[in-house]
Amino acid sequence: MGFGILGFWPGSMGIGEMVLVAIVAVVLFGGRLPEVARTFGGYYNQFRKSLSDIQNSIKNDLDVSEDINAPARILHDDQDIDDEDPAPSFNPPPEED
Asked: Which of 19, 22, 42, 47 is nearest to 33 (CA)?
């Protein structure tokens, strides 16, 4: 059973593909591979942190917009409503023959 690279790679990689990626990485970077891996890890960590900040910002904006759209006061059955002038009721016009 494979797993997705970085959590968002479509599909999965088997052992053969991982070995191929490791061989290509050693050929390209050689002795600098630990330094390159650390640098990549730092960039990936920074990317994840920025993505999390953006998600939290969007979530907070949605929460604020829901608060704005919420009713100012919720009335319960046991509360009295002081309506001296109730809203007019609708009366349809009389039917003509």
From this structure: 22
